[in-house]
Specification:
By secondary structure, the chain is an all-alpha fold. 60% of the residues lie in helices and 0% in strands. Bound molecules: adenosine-5'-diphosphate and nickel (II) ion (NI). Adenosine-5'-diphosphate is lined by residues 22, 63, 98-100, 118, 122, 127, 130-131, 134-135, 140, 158, 161, 166.
Length: 202
C-alpha cells in the first residue's frame, strides 16, 4: 500500500495543482490530515487505506473541469499493479463519497471517515472561501437581493448554498469526532452569515 500511496500522491498533486474551484492539492492534503485525525480518535479500519481514499476521492469528480479529458480513476488504477478487490473497493468508495451523488450505505468504514474530512473542508473559513471560489467558477452570483433563507426563496446564489447544504453538514457527520470538529466551523459560518446580512442591509 505504501508504494501505491506514493504513486497516488504524484498523480493527484500533478492533476490538481492549478485547480481553481477549491478542489486543489491543498484540499486533498487537508482532507488527508483531517481524516487521519479522525481515524486516530475512532480507530476503525486501516489508516493507510484512509489515506489512499482521501488522496483519490476527487479524481472522478465531474464538477471539476480539469477532470473532463483526464484519466478516470479506473484507468489510472488499471496502470497500477494492484489486486482486483482493492481496485473495486476504491472505486466504490470514491464514487459514493460525494454529497449529491453518493450512497452512504455503500461506503467502507474508512471512506465514512474521509467523507467527514471532506465535509469538514466545506465548513469554516476555508469552506466559505471554497464556496465562493466554486460559485464564481460556475457562474453563480455571490448573493441576490434579499437572498436569505428566512424569506424562503431559492435563487441559486452562493449565499443560498449555505442554507441548501453547508449549514446541514454538521448534523450529517458519520463519526462522533467529525461532529465535534464541525461544531466550531459551523458556528463560524453562522457568524459570517450574520455579519454578511448586516452589511448587506446597511
Ligand atoms: P461533494 O464532494 O460532497 O459532492 P461538492 O463537490 O458538492 O461536495 O462540494 C465541494 C465544494 O464545492 C464545497 O466546498 C462546496 O461548498 C462547493 N460547492 C458545491 N456546490 C456549490 C454551489 N452551488 N455554490 C457554492 N459552492 C458550492
Ligand atoms: Ni473533496
Amino acid at each position: 500500500m505504501d508504494q501505491l500511496i506514493k504513486e497516488a500522491e504524484m498523480f493527484v498533486k500533478e492533476r490538481f495543482k492549478e485547480e481553481v474551484t477549491g478542489h486543489d492539492w491543498f484540499h486533498m492534503e487537508r482532507v488527508r490530515r483531517q481524516a487521519y485525525l479522525i481515524w486516530e480518535k475512532e480507530r476503525v479500519g486501516d489508516p493507510l487505506y484512509v489515506d489512499l481514499v482521501a488522496l483519490l476521492h476527487d479524481v472522478d469528480d465531474s464538477k471539476i473541469a480539469s477532470a473532463v479529458h483526464a484519466l478516470t480513476l479506473e484507468e489510472w488504477l488499471e496502470k497500477m499493479d494492484i489486486q482486483k478487490e482493492l481496485m473495486a473497493k476504491l472505486l466504490t468508495d470514491t464514487s459514493n463519497i460525494s454529497f449529491r451523488a453518493g450512497n452512504r450505505s455503500l461506503l467502507s468504514p474508512e471512506a465514512l471517515i474521509v467523507q467527514d474530512a471532506d465535509r469538514l473542508d466545506a465548513l469554516g473559513a476555508i469552506g466559505i472561501a471554497r464556496a465562493f471560489a466554486y460559485g464564481a467558477h460556475s457562474g453563480q452570483m455571490i448573493c441576490k437581493h434579499g437572498d436569505f433563507r428566512e424569506q424562503n426563496r431559492s435563487t441559486g446564489s452562493t449565499i443560498e448554498h449555505f442554507y441548501d447544504k453547508l449549514l446541514l453538514l454538521k448534523d450529517l457527520m458519520n463519526t462522533k469526532t467529525g461532529r465535534e470538529m464541525a461544531e466550531e466551523k459551523h458556528q463560524f459560518m453562522l457568524s459570517f452569515l450574520c455579519q454578511f446580512k448586516k452589511e448587506w442591509k446597511e
